[in-house]
Write a structure and sequence with these properties.
The chain has 487 residues and is mainly alpha-helical. The chain is 37% helix and 7% strand. A two-stranded antiparallel ribbon has the order 1-2. The chain has 3 domains: 3-92, no CATH class; 124-231, 2-Layer Sandwich (Dna Ligase, domain 1); 238-449, no CATH class. Strand 9 (451-454) and strand 10 form a beta hairpin.
């Protein structure tokens, strides 16, 4: 279709006469249209006559084709009047008569209707934001289903009396703790725990460990219970000063419910448990026997039901290392030319078992060093009954009071811990000394004592520099019914 024909159909509103089916366009110089030819489009709308479009640039409309027309560059000539873009033309173009469907130029599509944006529900958006934020802070656990119109589901009270053991693991978030409590039947919903946590800032200080709680507790009561140390479910093991490893293993076995053999096997490699290799050095020329004895520091330990033998022993060795570092035990003895830190540890273990009072420890270690290293004591033998008893313990036999040790046992050369026939310090410590005994072995007194004996039931020790004085002290002990061997 040519432009002439197309425009004829487009403006067929009765303004122009038709001849032979062809639209007759008005001449450019007709007086009724010429006066409006240069006026603005708004003036056309105000006049009963639409005015004369500017068709002068296209005298032969029917000869142009769409392919020849450059729409982007020639909107004015395409629409029959110069200077107006398509939107302006649509506004000022003549309107069709009633009932006649207008025809748009080929290639011109109707403008798309803008989609109306749906309004968002601000309440719903706020709720979703809240759920996202709480989900991030508490492990992403809480869902919309846990929130009721009147608040989260929760129990009331402090429980129904049924015990529940739960474990709070190290590094767990509030949401993960809540999941644990829900799974154990302690609380009804994690959302309730979240709400109670926000009300109780101390909830952030809940410590890792096992707890003994009750089932069906309110979230608030559960948090309070987790903050109370009395509810911690632990196995308490008290290691007293001087205890030997066989005694410690037996106590650990009872509290943790593990066979003694597991602790014995775990202790075979003390270095693997945290004892530094450098400890096992002697200056007296004797071979070194690596043992965990002496490195299991006496203290009160709290172990969980899941603690392994290795973990328990490592905890004790770690505590020993802390104390030794605190008092600078190794550093102080590094310059000692007579005995090593390991030999001093042995001396500390013997003093811990021979004496009862802290104030006697430094005198006792001084007397032990005199016997072992001065070369002024018979055979340089310690003659310590506690070392004999350690050997008995290693072989499953009970310790004996001094008066009950036989002459044969005192003369047994096959016993490496027989300090009556073997000179110097025994192969290993004979127990686990405390901080006072360690400090005493590191810094013994400057006295010249060679003998000691407990003289009463209060644990008072009497020291002497001569054998005669020592025998007098032994008589005092016998009169006080102390089970000592006669001088």
């Amino acid at each position: 279709m040519s432009y002439g024909q197309d425009y004829g159909g487009y403006y067929d509103d009765g303004r122009y006469p038709q001849q032979g089916g062809q639209q007759q366009w008005p001449q450019q110089q007709q007086p009724q249209y010429g006066q409006y030819g240069q006026q603005q489009p708004d003036q056309w709308q105000q006049q009963p006559q639409y005015g004369q479009p500017q068709y002068g640039q296209q005298p032969q409309y029917g000869q142009q084709t769409y392919g020849q027309q450059q729409y982007g560059q020639d909107y004015g000539t395409y629409y029959g009047h110069q200077g107006y873009d398509p939107q302006q033309y649509e506004q000022f173009a003549p309107q069709p008569q009633y009932g006649q469907q207008p025809q748009r130029p080929v290639g011109k599509t109707a403008p798309k209707k803008k989609k109306r944006k749906k309004k968002r529900n601000p309440f719903l958006a706020a709720l979703v934001t809240l759920l996202i934020l709480t989900g991030i802070g508490f492990g992403g656990y809480y869902g919309l289903s846990e929130f009721g119109f009147l608040g989260p589901s929760d129990y009331s009270g402090s429980g129904n009396g049924q015990e529940a053991i739960v474990e709070v693991k190290k590094g767990q978030s509030g949401g993960e703790i809540a999941e644990t409590l829900v799974s154990a039947g302690v609380i009804k919903s994690a959302a309730a725990f979240l709400e109670a946590s926000l009300k109780n800032p101390d909830s952030k200080t809940i410590q890792a460990g096992f707890y003994k709680l009750q089932k069906e507790m309110s979230a608030e009561a559960a948090i309070i219970a987790l903050l109370d140390k009395k509810n911690r479910y632990v196995k308490t093991v008290l290691v007293t000063e001087g205890m030997a490893t066989p005694e410690i293993y037996k106590k650990l076995s009872t509290e943790l419910g593990r066979p003694v053999e597991e602790f014995t096997n775990a202790a075979k490699d003390p270095v693997a448990l945290g004892v530094a290799e450098t400890w096992f050095t002697r200056k007296d020329g004797k071979p070194v026997t690596k043992s965990i004895e002496g490195f299991l520091f006496p203290a009160t330990y709290e172990f969980t039901p899941s603690t392994t033998p290795e973990q328990a022993l490592k905890a004790m060795v770690s505590r020993f290392n802390e104390v030794a570092k605190e008092i600078k035990f190794v550093e102080t003895l590094a310059s000692n030319k007579t005995y090593s830190a390991y030999e001093a540890l042995i001396a500390a273990s013997i003093a811990q078992n021979e004496l009862r009072k802290d104030e006697d420890m430094s005198k006792g270690t001084q007397a032990l060093y005199f016997r072992a290293y001065s070369k002024k004591f018979p055979c340089n033998c310690l003659k310590a009954d506690s070392a004999l008893n350690y050997y008995f313990k290693l072989n499953g036999a009970p310790a004996k009071p001094s008066k009950d040790i036989t002459a044969a046992e005192l003369a047994d050369k096959n016993n490496p811990y027989n300090t009556y026939v073997n000179a110097g310090m025994p192969p290993t410590p004979i127990g686990n000394p405390g901080k006072v005994a360690l400090s005493a072995a590191m810094s013994p007194s400057s006295s010249s004592f060679q003998y000691w004996v407990i003289v009463d039931d209060k644990g008072t020790a009497a020291f002497a520099s001569s054998l005669s004085s020592h025998c007098s002290n032994v008589q005092k002990a016998i009169k006080a019914n102390v089970p000592v061997r006669p001088c």
